Amino acid sequence: MCRIAGIINNRLQPQQICEKVKAMCNSLQHGGPDDEGLFVNKEDHLVFGHRRLSIIDLSSNGHQPMSDIRQTAWITFNGEIYNYQDIRNQLLKLGVQFRSVTDTEVILSAYLQWGTAAFSKFRGMFAFAIFDSVKHLTYLVRDTAGIKPIYYFINNQSLSFASEVRAFTAGGITTEKDNNWPIRLLAFGHIPEPYTTLKNVFSLPKGHYLRWDNTSSTHVISKYEQPNKREQITNIDEAREVIKTALIKSVNRQMIADAPLGVFLSGGIDSSLLTLLADKEKEEQLNTISIFFNEKLYDEQAYQGVVLKQLKGKNFSHLVKQQDFETHFSQIITAMDMPTTDGINSWFISKYAHEDGLKAVLSGVGADEYFGGYPSFNRMRYLAFLRKMPSSIFSAAKNILPDPYKKLTFLANEGSIADYLLLRGFFSPGDIAMILGANTRQIQEVLFNSHDVPDLGPYNQEHAAWFETNLYMQNQLLRDTDVMSMSHGLEVRVPFLDEDFTAAVESITPEIRFNSTQSKKLLIDSFSPLLPASIWNRPKMGFTFPLQTWMGQHPEINNSSLYKDKLSKKVINKFKNNRIHWSKAFALYQIKAHV
Q1: Is 2 a catalytic residue?
Q2: CA atoms of 390 and 98, how far apart (whole Å)
C-alpha cells in the first residue's frame, strides 16, 4: 500500500520532470513513509515516483518503481493483490522467473505474459501505472471496486497522474480550480467522480485502464474484461452457503501481511462479523481497534464487549472527546485532500490504529450497500410514487416548500441523479444558487447534465443498491476511508468488496438477497450462530460520532463572519439551535472557508 505519481511530457527535460515528480511524491509522504523511489526513462520523457508503505515483503526487494527481471517494463503500484500467490504459481509453470516474493512483480510479469487481459485476473485493491518500454505505452489501471484512487491530468500532449489531488498542485502541474466543485459539494456532500477540485483533473473510472501512447501522446480509456457472470441463485439455502463460503475466503486471503494487522471493531453487524471470521483465521491473537465516547447515545462499548468476550487477542480501545475533535480539526481538514462531509470517524480510528503499531486493518465497508442496510432500500417505493407525478409540480413548489421538504425540488429534473439527490442530497438547487450567488439553471446544468448514469430500471432494491454502491460508497465512503487512513500511513482492507464475493452476492436473486422487514437478513442468517443475536438484533447506528454536539460548539464552524449571504446566515443560525443536521453546516462551512 503506497502512494504513486508520474509524468510523461516530451516538452520538458527529464531533470525538470524529475523535480516535479519529486515534489508530487513529497506531498504524498504521509501515505508512504517507509521508502521512496524514482524511475526515469529519458527516451520517453517519463518519470514514475513512489512512496512506499511496506505490508508484503518488507525487504528492499519491494522497492519501487520496480521492473521485471529483463527490465522491459516498469511499475509504480498502490494497493494489494490478494491472489498474487496463485497467479505467481501459474506464471512459474509457464517458465517466468522472479527475483522477489512481492505482489508488485507478479503484476508486471502477468502483464508481460497476458497483456491487458491480466488486469481482470487480479483480486484486490489497486491503482498502478505500467510503462512498457518495448511498445512505448503507459497504462494507468484501477481496481473493479474503485477502492484505490488514481487521478490524471492531460494537457499539451502530456500525462500526469497521482494518488491524491494535492500532488498536482504540489508539483506545479496545475492550480486552476474547477469552479463547479462548490455546487457538487453542497448537493452531494462530496465531490463525485470523475470530478475533483481542479479543472481537468479527473478520477480514472473503476475497472478501467487508460492507455497512453508515449510516441503520439494520445490516449484511450477502456473497461477491462470482467469475470463471467454466475448463474442466478434462487434457492435460499444455496444463497446462504455461497455467501458464507465467499466471505470466509475473502477474509482469509485479506489477512495476508508481513506487517501488524488488525480489525476495526465498532460493535455493528459488519465489523463484528469480520472480527469473528478473522479471529478464526488468525493463527496468532487478533488485534482489534475500537472507539468509545462519553456521550452514551453514541457509545457502543457494550456491543464491542459481546464480541471481545469471544476473542483472545488484544483490543485497543480509545476514548474520543470533543477536545480531541477541537485539537485535531485543522489536521482533519488538511487530510481530506478534497472537501467532504464524511471521514472524521475514519481519521480518528486510523490515527489510533497507527499509534497502536498496526500497518493494515480490515473494515466492514460494503455490507450495507450489498444487503440493503440503508433506509433508501425501503424508500424506493415512495420515490416510485413521486415519479408518477408531473415534474412541473415540484418545479412550481420550489418557493413554498419548508426546509425539510425542499429536496423534493430535485424531482423537477429528470434522471437518476435527481432521484439519488432526493434520497441523499443536501441543499436544493435553488438554495445552492442563493448560497453561491449563481443562476439556478447553471446549478441544474452542473448537477444533472454532467453525470453518466445507466438506465437503472424499476424503483426497486436493486436500484437502491446501485445508488448506494456506485454513488454514495464509491464517492464518499471509499474515497474518504482511503485518504484519511493513508494520512496516517495505514492500509484499510475491505473484504465485502472482494471481487469474488461481490460476484457471488450479485448472482443471488433480489427476492432472496433483500428483505424489507429486516436489513441484511441474508448476511445475518448465513453466519448464524457465529454472530451473536445481541449484535444483529439491535438498532442500527453506523460508525457515528457525536458531531451534532461537537460541531455545534465549534467556534470556527459557527463563526458568523464567514457567512455573508442571507441564506447561509439562516442555515447556521438554525444549526446553532439544533434544527439542521451537522453535515449540512459542515458542507457550508467548507465552502465559505475555501472559496
Answers
A1: yes
A2: 64
H or E stretch including 520?
A: none
The pLDDT tens digits of the residues spanning 376-408 come to 999 999 999 999 999 888 887 777 787 778 889
Give kind and range of the element (H or E) at residue 132.
Answer: strand 124-132
Contact 197, 177 (CB under 8 A): yes
Catalytic-labelled residue, pool 2, 141, 210, 531: 2
Per-residue model confidence (pLDDT) at position 53 = 67
pTM above 0.85, yes or no: yes
Angle at 195 between CA 189 and CA 200, to 5 degrees: 150
The DSSP string of 66-126 is: EE-TTSSEEEEEEEEETTHHHHHHHHHHTT---SS--HHHHHHHHHHHHGGGGGGG--EEE
**What pLDDT, in 10s, does the model give residues 41-76?**
999 999 999 997 655 555 556 688 999 999 999 999
Give 73's Cβ-side CA count (13 Å radius). 24
Report the alpha-carbon angle 473-474-477, nearest 5. Answer: 50
Alpha helices per DSSP H over 400-520: 416-424, 429-436, 440-448, 461-467, 479-486, 499-506, 510-513
- Helices then strands, each counted (H, E), the chain: 25, 17
Check if the beta carbon of residue 429 is closer than 8 Å to that of residue 440. Answer: yes
On whether the CB atoms of residues 342 and 477 are closer than 8 A, the answer is yes
Q: Which three cell numbers stand for residue 303?
A: 456491543
**DSSP code at position 329:** H
